[in-house]
Amino acid sequence: MATACSPECCATLSGWVFLAAGLLDRVARAVDDRLMKGAWLQADDTGFPVQGGTDGNLRKGRLWAVTDQQEVRYHFSATKAGKNPVEFLKDYQGRLLLVDGGSEFNAAVEAKGLLRAGRWSHLRTYFFHARHHHPEAALLAIGTIRDLFAVEEAIRDASLEDRRARGRGEMVFGEWIRWQDEAVLGTPKSVHTDRGEARSRTSKPHVLTGPSPEREVQRPPPA
Predict the structure, then answer these.
(1) pLDDT of residue 8
(2) What confidence score (pLDDT) does residue 7 get?
(3) Rounded mean pLDDT of the chain?
(4) pLDDT (0 to 100) of residue 10
């Protein structure tokens, strides 16, 4: 449905938006200052269409989110270029950056000498796509990652000391590391997947059965 706006109305609304942006910029800067002083950060970006210019056409834009899981700072850019995270992370004093495998973060990691951490959800995607080609190894991996997700959910609001005391996550992660070490030291078969190549598992810390693997891995692990 078409809308109409008089020049006076548009000028008033634009003025309100401009003033609000100026006030909120102080809040954004305060959030950014706290985030930059943290020990770790998580970041991600996504593309979306934006309206710019006077021709009415949509253009590509990029929205970046930087968070410590307590506060989030958003940044906008016209491109996915690595110079963008280099700029908005230039004052970061921490050591760890949790991001996906996107190359747009490479320059920032190198410039700041950061320790780059990955996400289990992204790793799980590759095993999920491998389940048709090598179901046993893929489902074992997905099941172990599911256990880690369940542990995370159970201790989400616990203190760091309580998390360490429970130890379940470290046990599940230890199983994963042992499998990884065995695969590297042994001679696992290469498994071609929809998105590249994975390695088959040589041990079985977790076994999944049933006709619907995806629904199965979403269930909590047995008590």
Answers:
(1) 53
(2) 55
(3) 77
(4) 65
Tokens of 15: 């003025």
pLDDT at 38: 93
Give backbone dihedrals phi and psi of 36, rounded to 5 degrees, phi first.
-65, -20
What is the C-alpha to C-alpha distance for residues 63 and 151, in angstroms, rounded to an integer?
31
Residue 69 to residues 44, 48, 98, 162, 165, Cα–Cα distance (Å): 13, 23, 11, 19, 22
CB 82 within 8 A of CB 104: yes
Distance CA 99, CA 107 (A): 13
Q: Are 191 and 127 in contact (CB under 8 A)?
A: no
Phi, psi dihedral angles at 173 (to 5 degrees): -65, -35
How far apart (Å, rounded) are the C-alpha atoms in residues 193 and 126? 8
